[in-house]
Amino acid sequence: MALLVLIVLGATLGWLASIIARTEAPGAILRQIAGGVAVSLLAGGVANGGTMLGSLSFFGLGVALAVTAVALVLYHAILRRLAEA
């Protein structure tokens, strides 16, 4: 169950980040969703003690949410800086 929750959380945050950043290229949107899923799975798995098939703790969910949001913000900050250079 934790695996499914973290995948949905990461995909949702990646999709919301693409809306907030006004990303219109389909490839860029998919990269943000994939990045959100990857970071969410990694952070949630580490915070949940490495278990992905059991239940997800509130701490694991909170860490996954926070780390994914920060990672997506950093992703957009780096992209904008590279586009300016």
Question: How helix-rich are the residues, as a percent range?
Answer: over 70%
What are the segments in which pLDDT stays under 50 over at least 5 consecutive residues? none
Question: What is the β-strand count?
Answer: 0
- The run of helices and strands is HHH
Choose one word for the global shape: elongated
Oligomer: single chain
Keywords: Membrane, Transmembrane, Transmembrane helix
Protein name: GlsB/YeaQ/YmgE family stress response membrane protein
Please provide a brief summary of the model.
The chain is mainly α and 85 residues long. The chain contains three helices and no strands.
Structure description:
The chain has 85 residues and is an all-alpha fold. It has one domain (2-84). It is 80% helix and 0% strand. The chain has three helices and no strands. This is GlsB/YeaQ/YmgE family stress response membrane protein. Keywords: Membrane, Transmembrane, Transmembrane helix.
